[in-house]
Amino acid sequence: MSAPKVVLVGPMGVGKSTVGGMLAERLGCLFRDTDDDIVTAQGRAIAEIFVDEGEARFRALEKAAVAAALAEHDGVLALGGGAILDADSRALLAGHQVVYLSMDVEEAARRTGLNVARPLLAVNPRKQWRELMEARRHLYTEAATVVVATDGRSPDEVAQAVLDAL
Ligand code: S3P
Prior knowledge:
- By secondary structure, this protein is an alpha/beta fold.
- The chain has eight helices and five strands; from the N terminus they run βαβαααβαβααβα.
- The chain has a single domain (6-165), classed as P-loop containing nucleotide triphosphate hydrolases (Rossmann fold, 3-Layer(aba) Sandwich), CATH 3.40.50.300.
- A five-stranded parallel sheet has the order 2-3-1-4-5, with helices on both faces.
- It is globular.
- It starts with 5 loop residues before the first strand and ends with a helix.
- Mg(2+) binds at residue 17.
- This is Shikimate kinase.
- It is found in: Cytoplasm.
């Protein structure tokens, strides 16, 4: 059991999974994503967990998934966009190489269409995305050892920028 090589944090839709897969390939290691771990373990989509059991239940599942993945995974690990809300999860990130993939709201709108299937953006996507980012930006920044802006960059360019920054 050893520490992950790289942990990716940042907002939903920033490309953590796509970039994480590319990074893992280039670093010659495995990619893991805590959202996928939760979906696999629960046998349900994340949106279903939110609807059926509420956000608090999802956050408890996420907290356990983050702790397990940080303990078990030696490779590139992507955390769900809200994982850094939990203080214990943030504390577990200390000592790891943590990359914050950032993007502005216009880029978010372009990339995700501020997709209403994402449970936290269901009512007023653009406004809610802004509010989420205002509440979270400092948490991402504080958790990060490296910040990589993704605006105007392809996933391939972002992956290269991360490698250059590591
Ligand atoms: C969330 C982000 C999502 C997922 C859930 C909640 C958030 O993950 O965990 O919908 O609170 O920002 P991604 O960042 O992988 O989309």
